[in-house]
Amino acid sequence: MKTNEFIKKLNELGYNVKETEHNMIVRKEYTHLAVIDKENIYGFKYFYHNDKDLFKLCVDYTSTPIEEREEEKKYYLFKIDKKFYEYEYLNYNKYYNHWSLGDDIEDAQYKTKFTWNEIEKIKKKYNTELCEFVKEVVE
Fold first, then answer.
1. Full-prediction pTM beyond 0.85?
2. Considering the chain, what is the average pLDDT of its residues?
3. Are 85 and 100 in contact (CB under 8 A)?
């Protein structure tokens, strides 16, 4: 389970989360109900509270390996020398299996955001280092 999914489900149950460097504290108003260890799998303390949905959610989340809890970062690839191009972002047309330069807007037809693994696959498939592009983290 991803962290953002965990927090969303907690909010739906009426709980909120306070994050510290090493923990996430699940609370209702000012009462601490659980403390989730952000650095160790299966690590959480559950304080007496009669909510089996909360307990199950904590077990599900802490059972997820640490490295699988966060969303993988995505990147735009944009042309270094953009003075010759009106549109400078690498775009993949999913319908026509075609690469082009365009804007940074991703939609049903165009993919403009790529994970690190996807970028590595592009490099390998097309035998390129993509030196003419700069990676920009998608916020």
1. no
2. 91
3. no
